[in-house]
Design goal:
11 helices; 8-stranded mixed β-sheet; Alpha/beta hydrolase; 8 strands; AB_hydrolase_fold; 372 residues; single chain
Length: 372
Amino acid sequence: MVAPRLGARGARAASAMMRGALRLPAPLLRPLAGPPVRTDDGRELPVSSRVVMRLIQRSMPTGLHDLVRLRTDSERGGPILAGNEGRDLWITDLTVPGAEGPLRARLYEPPAGREPGPLLVFFHGGGWILGGVESHEPVCRFLAARSNVRVLSAEYRLAPEHGFPAQSDDALAVFRHVTGNPARFGAAPGRIAVGGDSAGGNLAAAVAHDALRTGSAPPAWILLIYPATDLLGEYASRTAYGKGFVIDTETWTGPEGLITSLVPYGEDPRLSVIRDPDVAGLPPTYIATGGLDPLRDEGEAYAERLRTAGVDVTLRRFDLLFHGFASFACVERHCRAALAEVAREVRRAMAATAPAAGQAATGPADDTEVAV
């Protein structure tokens, strides 16, 4: 079943209903949440978070035959999940040059001040096969509103229709265009960061690696939210959380999996960035992982690889969260608390790129802290 298309008012109403439902007392939510889920140290995942995890898992494709439906649903679901978040932002739809043609992009600008400032170029997740500016409306709105930093959400060609390295080629083309034309995006030269979630985190890292190899303009900072860093590696978290925790490992990487077309390139450091032989000199990097995410260990192994090479790395594991939590930050309080922490880090890091003291940005008040 394809989700119905809703106008802006309908999307806001649906978002409000979802937020209200997820705030219901735990006994009322338990029938939707499924059996209890516990972390390695025995802590139980909150009931509202379990509902969200099951929602994400049920929206995942079971095979490439699902792709058209899932792409449509993810595009229509993004505005619903975003709701009223960032309603004061200036939002502009753009096209930017990819490696082989124009691509969609969306610029989110905080309303206070129009002078050039920091910019985060953000690439969406979706396993290189799903997603776009609509699906990641909630993540990008949230980050822009809470960090007071401009965010440019950029698309790229998707597999399997477009084989590797089309995805990384497009990401490189977009980032090089932005750094070559900062005024178009309200960005100050030297204050342009790159980031992404999941497969988008992979692309963000690949952009930074390319700048290191080629000597092109590097990002000022890197944000990686539960990134994919090693397509072929074997990690304990993939075994522990590879079934029933959003990403079904066999469905994605098995012999007839969703990303089978990418597997032959798994040794390529543009795809498995942890396999790049030279990472020394990368910009400061922030990596967020989820304690219940199959990709947890490869993200943390990548952080350790960078740290060993002398890179300034901050690693934050959100023990009680799972793959995809950032997309639900506007509707569920534990996801919101985690992404609010990430947004504070964006604000702090990008203020540190200012050319002179006294230019640090300020943003709206933080949410009440909850355990994540």
